[in-house]
Amino acid sequence: MTERKPSNQELRTRKDLLRAAGRLMKKGCKPTMDEVAAEAMVSRATAYRHFPRLDALLVEAPIDAAVADPVGLFANDPSDDAEARADRAEASLHEVVYQNEAQLRIMLANSIGRDMTDDTLPARQNRRLPLIEAALATSRHRFREDDYQRLCAALALIFGPESMVVFRDVLGFDAETARMVKSWAVRALVRAALEDAKSA
Amino acid sequence: MTERKPSNQELRTRKDLLRAAGRLMKKGCKPTMDEVAAEAMVSRATAYRHFPRLDALLVEAPIDAAVADPVGLFANDPSDDAEARADRAEASLHEVVYQNEAQLRIMLANSIGRDMTDDTLPARQNRRLPLIEAALATSRHRFREDDYQRLCAALALIFGPESMVVFRDVLGFDAETARMVKSWAVRALVRAALEDAKSA
DNA sequence: ATTTTAATGAGACTTTGGTCTCTTTACAAT
DNA sequence: ATTGTAAAGAGACCAAAGTCTCATTAAAAT
Fold first, then answer.
1. Which of A52-66, A152-166, B151-165, B176-190 has the lowest mean pLDDT?
2. Contact flag B165-A162 (C-beta cutoff 8 Å)
3. Which chain A residues contact residue B110 at CB under 8 A?
4. pTM for this model (two decimals)
5. Which residues contact B77 (CB under 8 A, 6 or more apart)?
6. A32: distance to nearest CA of chain B, Å?
7. Chain A partners of B116 at a C-beta cutoff of 8 Å?
């Protein structure tokens, strides 16, 4: 237990660095540690003290567009139409992803390319599973537990920024076309999982 | 038309560089240009002459595991069970992807993170669509054209190395679990597309 | 108010990606 | 065999990532 409560000052500069990085990444190109430090009005050495690698900074940099809040999105929606809710969740994440394409690409590239034998880097944060689970919450009782887990995993392939990369770089689709395909796929998968439950 | 036939010498050193890069990447970590040049027994300057950026070299580096050949895989299989064929195609690509995980991660990171306003880098090559189309070839007549295109796009989300990244980095799944989820999802999507055709 | 401690600032230093120039070698045509 | 041309080699050079040390400032404790 070597836990130590970080001082206010530490938290403040840490936050400043993250916000600075986010601001610079919105402009579309990978910022330099010097640039981030300058933008945060902080010495370069200090930046490295808080984030030993530039990657760590970029991965944690906040998406300042309001990220879809799983709780908020379905707060006043007691519906149990799993298909519609999952689709709506995807639509909401879709917006965030395509609004922050440049920033997310940088994040993705840095987290994918990390040396796999190196566990000093922070794991990727996972915003999509809470969202998926919130969407399926009102109808979870209709799934077998295994089917539910499998469905969540399959939906995770569709929900994140990785699908944007496939659509844009591999297929050459624009955001709207991508959204249509995803909408269809999400509904098809939810329906299939429900079918599985019935026929079991 | 400033096309110029490259000399034998050029082709030889180019090939040597690519093979050297592939050899080094199999060891799992991104090689430096010096290392590649040394491995290819070539001067660093020469390496840069053939590949102006290290990225370009790594992206083009060959996956020496036999890449799933769409034609070969279904050469002696006249079956028109779209579900089974799509699943089998995915299984085959799954093997290649997980066998070459390290190398593919480097490739992916480099192609994702490229500056989008920069078109000097080679576009991503697309191995998955031919594979998907070969799988669906014998049953293509059962789909409406729009449904077919949509299905191919949806399957492309599941087939490539991007899904490996989601499974490993986001969900923490191993290769076998990933394969099971993908198998289910692929079959569910194909089935859904066929249903759409029937109810139209 | 003074002392102690932890965070910051400043800057030297190393490695790697990438560019550039100049020289040397290999190839091909005659 | 000689000569013109294009590729390869050698090395200087710059920018950015990352590490280190030491001085300076701000916060906290007494």
1. A52-66
2. yes
3. 109, 113
4. 0.87
5. B85
6. 14
7. 28, 102, 105
Task: Kindly state whether residue B1 falls inside one of the protein's structural domains.
Answer: no
Residues B15 and B93 in one domain: no
Task: Verify whether the Cβ–Cβ distance B113 to A102 is below 8 Å.
Answer: no
Mean pLDDT, chain B, as a whole number?
87
Distance from CA of A8 to the nearest CA of B (A): 31
What stretch of H or E contains A85?
helix A82-99
Are A84 and A30 within one domain?
no
CA dist A173 → A161, A183, A189, A193 (Å): 14, 14, 21, 28
Residue A1 lies in a domain: no
The amino acid at A52: P
Containing structural domain, residue A55: 8-60
Name, of A1-10, A17-26, B92-101, B187-196, the range with top average pLDDT. B187-196
Q: What is the pLDDT of residues A53-64, one digit of tens each?
A: 998 898 888 775
Residue B78 has pLDDT above 90, yes or no: no
Q: Is B65 among the domain residues?
A: no
Could you say which nucleotides of strand C lie within 7 A of any protein CB atom? 6-11, 16-21, 26-28
Query: Could you count the other beta carbons within 10 Å of the beta carbon of residue A109?
Result: 21
Q: Are residues B151 and B117 in the same domain?
A: yes
- Are the beta carbons of A154 and B180 separated by less than 8 Å? no
> A115–B29: do the CB atoms touch at under 8 Å?
yes
Q: Are A30 and B113 in contact (CB under 8 A)?
A: yes
Count CB pairs under 8 A between chains A and B. Answer: 127
Same domain, B163 and B191: yes
User: Is B49's CB less than 7 Å from nucleic acid strand D?
Assistant: yes
Select the residue of A113, A160, A189 nearest B105 (Cβ to Cβ): A113
For residues A188 and A102, membership in a common domain is answered with: yes
Q: B10-23: b or e for each residue (b if 16 or more CB lie within 10 Å)? A: eeebbebbbbbbbb
Co-location of B90 and B142 in the same domain: yes
Q: How far apart are CA B185 and CA B178, in angstroms?
A: 11
The backbone region for A172, taken as left when phi is positive above 0, alpha when psi lies in -120 to 50, beta otherwise, is left
Residues B168 and B116 in one domain: yes
The reply to whether residue B112 touches residue A169, judged by beta carbons under 8 angstroms, is yes
